[in-house]
Specification:
CATH class: Alpha Beta
Largest sheet: 3 strands, antiparallel
Number of helices: 3
């Protein structure tokens, strides 16, 4: 029996990919928005491809804000974009 591989949808391009290929961005219970490097942090998560184009697309189409159910300040978006490289 083959082990099930968890997949998630990128909020930028909308493609389904393996969870480990995507980067998780979370909104903590305190309302802070950050990149979850472990993939296990507590909070509401949104998944995004590891390229900057998908991140820009997610910002443009408000996919990130929709997934996290909150508006995201511009300085936070810039910080996340820098972290993604």
């Amino acid at each position: 029996m083959q082990k099930k591989i968890p997949t998630r949808k990128c909020v930028g391009c909308g493609e389904m990919k393996e969870k480990k290929e995507l980067i998780r961005i979370i909104k903590t219970p305190e309302g802070e928005i950050l990149v979850d490097t472990t993939g296990k942090a507590n909070g509401r998560g949104a998944y995004i491809c590891s390229n900057a184009e998908c991140f820009r697309k997610a910002v443009r189409n408000k996919g990130l804000e929709r997934s996290l159910k909150s508006s995201i300040p511009a300085d936070v978006l810039e910080r996340i974009e820098k972290e993604l490289g």
